[in-house]
C-alpha cells in the first residue's frame, strides 16, 4: 500500500523517527514531494529545535516515517526505510528510499458529519507563546474534528505542530459553550486561514456526546458570514 504516499500534499507535517538511535530521536518536518518507487523527500529538521538529531542524519540511517491522511476514513500511516541522500542545495532535504510497504489504520471510530459551529482555539504555540484564535468547526466525528481559524502574522511552522495540545471552546446555541481538549494531527494553510485536523483527547465521552446532541450547524452564524457585506 505504498500508494498512500501519493495522497500526501506538499507542506504536510510528517514525523520521522531515527530507528537506529538508542534514545527516542524523532522530529517533525514537512513533506516536499516524491519520485514514485525511488524517494520520499522531506525538509531537514529545524536546526534550532533538532540540532542533535540533525547530526545523526546520514546516508543509510534507518528511519520510521509517520503521517496522517485526512481522507474519508481518516488514517494514520507509517513505513520503515532509510535515508538515501542528504542534500544541501537549494535547501537542505532528506531523500528517503521509497518503502516496499506502508502500514495504515483508520483513526476515526465512526462517520464524520459536516458541521458549522463558531469556536475558539487556545494553546501554546511551537514558540512557547499562549495563543487564542477565533474560527469555525467544519466537521466532527466521535474521535476528532476539522476546523479553521484566522491566520496569525507568524509563519505557519511557528504556530502548531503535530502533537500540539489545544483547547476548543465550541459555541452551541442550545447547549451552551462546550470545551474539549484535543491534539493537533494535521495543519495546513487554506487561503487566508489555518485548517487543523484534531483528535479529541481521552476521557471526554460526556462532552463529545453533548456536542452530538446539539445542532451541528449554527444557521444564524452561517447566514451572517454568507451575507454580502
Automatic annotation (TrEMBL):
Pfam families, alphabetized: PilZ, PilZNR
Sequence ranges assigned to domain Type III secretion system flagellar brake protein YcgR PilZN in this UniProt record: 10-99
Record keyword Transmembrane helix present: no
An example Gene Ontology molecular-function term: cyclic-di-GMP binding
The keyword Mitochondrion is annotated on this UniProt entry: no
Keywords: Bacterial flagellum, c-di-GMP, Cell projection, Cilium, Flagellum, Nucleotide-binding
Residue span, PilZ domain: 125-211
Name of protein: Flagellar brake protein
Organism: Idiomarina ramblicola
Amino acid at each position: 500500500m505504498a500508494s498512500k504516499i501519493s495522497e500526501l500534499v506538499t507542506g504536510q507535517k510528517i514525523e520521522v523517527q531515527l530507528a537506529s538511535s538508542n534514545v527516542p530521536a524523532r522530529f517533525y518536518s514537512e513533506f516536499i514531494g516524491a519520485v514514485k518507487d525511488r524517494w520520499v523527500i522531506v525538509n531537514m529538521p529545524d536546526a534550532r529545535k533538532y540540532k542533535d538529531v540533525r547530526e545523526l542524519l546520514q546516508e543509510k540511517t534507518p528511519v520510521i516515517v509517520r503521517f496522517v491522511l485526512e481522507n474519508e476514513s481518516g488514517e494514520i500511516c507509517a513505513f520503515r526505510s532509510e535515508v538515501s541522500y542528504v542534500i544541501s542545495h537549494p535547501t537542505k532535504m532528506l531523500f528517503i528510499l521509497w518503502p516496499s510497504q506502508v502500514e495504515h489504520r483508520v483513526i476515526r471510530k465512526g462517520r464524520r458529519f459536516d458541521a458549522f459551529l463558531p469556536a475558539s482555539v487556545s494553546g501554546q504555540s511551537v514558540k512557547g507563546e499562549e495563543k487564542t484564535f477565533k474560527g469555525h468547526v467544519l466537521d466532527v466525528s466521535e474521535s476528532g474534528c476539522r476546523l479553521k481559524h484566522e491566520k496569525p502574522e507568524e509563519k505557519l511552522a511557528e504556530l502548531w505542530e503535530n502533537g500540539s495540545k489545544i483547547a476548543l471552546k465550541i459555541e452551541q446555541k442550545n447547549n451552551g459553550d462546550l470545551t474539549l481538549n484535543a491534539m493537533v494531527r494535521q495543519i495546513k494553510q487554506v487561503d487566508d486561514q489555518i485548517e487543523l485536523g484534531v483528535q479529541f483527547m481521552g476521557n471526554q465521552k460526556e462532552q463529545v456526546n453533548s456536542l452530538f446532541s446539539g445542532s451541528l450547524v449554527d444557521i444564524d452564524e452561517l447566514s451572517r458570514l454568507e451575507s454580502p457585506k
